[in-house]
């Protein structure tokens, strides 16, 4: 039986050293699931609300636990997530906190899988899920909100699209990361690391394009399969309406200049992926850029869509972007994330399952990506809280074939 018999909530550390919410879910027959909420730094304006962890825990204990314990089956994810929504009563989880909600939602899924004796990806995706595995997008150079005094563009992402297996793709990204260190060394550039473990060198975006391009080409030559690269521009963080556009240090680009710039970079570097190239309110700019380069690259909405079906539907109606980033904590439950994935897939949008810049050892997103046949997963390259997911992907691939 998967009836939930206990939910414990506690504060644990995330990778930035901040507190976050961890949930344990127990079931009648001894099923157990544990999960923790991640946390963003370049958060979208339209995300579900993360409360201060102690407040989120207190609110969830008061409002959510009575609707879950002895009431709901952990194996019925829709029922668990409906109970969380009912307990919250708002449309953005501002009452119990999206951090409490997502931790409980994911922990319940794991408890449901535990009772079945099935791996989480199989519980979520079913026995007849597809055979494919996601390509990992590996953050190798970054700045923006994730590292001070580094690039304006938040993430330069290795994309081993030609890798014959998940394992080879994961190791390819690590090899690109290592090659970048050598190239920066040769150029005499010192580099610390940003929040996600990417190199955070004090170089211009133009130089970062050169460095990543060289590292990707060298690694592809060495490994013998195609490795491209992509970007998360996190442009909502660059956009300043008072300044009249996108602020790159002393330079400000208008929206039209930003679209031109991104389109030029797509062609110059054969970019396979560009996330958030424009502000989170600019559906029109996304549509314009998608019209120009969407036949040869993915234009992905993160802050634009925030894993929200209504915002995604607006994007579909406007032909804005051709892919969506899926972050369960942006919307609060796994059921809501599944709804966004389903709507995206029905409309030909590629799905990219993603970590946050503040993470824990939790591996749920690796299972979510496999369960839903996502084309990509973005979960860093090196550093423990990132390798937790990448190593889990390798284990899943090992187990599933
Ligand atoms: C992972 C990201 O960063 P954050 O978690 O800070 O939003 C992102 O913007 O895609
Ligand atoms: Mg992003």
UniProtKB/TrEMBL annotation:
Q: Which residues make up the binding site for (2R)-2-phosphoglycerate?
A: 154, 327, 356-357, 378
* Chain sites annotated for binding Mg(2+): 232, 275, 302
Q: What are the record keywords, sorted?
A: Cytoplasm, Glycolysis, Lyase, Magnesium, Metal-binding, Pyruvate, Secreted
Location in the cell: Cytoplasm; Secreted; Cell surface
| Record-listed substrate binding positions | 146, 155, 275, 302, 354-357, 378
Q: What is its EC number?
A: 4.2.1.11
Q: Which residues form a coiled coil?
A: none
Textual note on the cofactor = Mg(2+) is required for catalysis and for stabilizing the dimer.
Which pathway, metabolic or otherwise, does it act in?
Carbohydrate degradation; glycolysis; pyruvate from D-glyceraldehyde 3-phosphate: step 4/5
Instruction: Give the top-level enzyme category.
Output: lyase
Recorded GO MF terms = magnesium ion binding; phosphopyruvate hydratase activity
Domain Enolase C-terminal TIM barrel, first and last residues per copy: 130-400
What Gene3D superfamilies does this protein map onto?
Enolase-like C-terminal domain, Enolase-like, N-terminal domain
* KW Methyltransferase (keyword) present: no
List cofactor names only: Mg(2+)
A Pfam family per the record: Enolase_C
Recorded GO cellular component terms are: cell surface; extracellular region; phosphopyruvate hydratase complex
Enzyme active site:
196, 327
Instruction: List the catalytic activities from the record.
Output: (2R)-2-phosphoglycerate = phosphoenolpyruvate + H2O
**UniProt record, GO biological process:** glycolytic process
Q: Does the keyword Iron apply?
A: no
Can you give the residue ranges of the Enolase N-terminal domain? 4-124
Family assignment from sequence similarity: Belongs to the enolase family.
Q: Which PANTHER family match?
A: ENOLASE
Q: Outline what the protein does.
A: Catalyzes the reversible conversion of 2-phosphoglycerate (2-PG) into phosphoenolpyruvate (PEP). It is essential for the degradation of carbohydrates via glycolysis.
Q: What is this protein called?
A: Enolase
Say which species the protein is native to. Halobellus limi
Specify the taxonomic lineage.
Answer: Archaea, Methanobacteriati, Methanobacteriota, Stenosarchaea group, Halobacteria
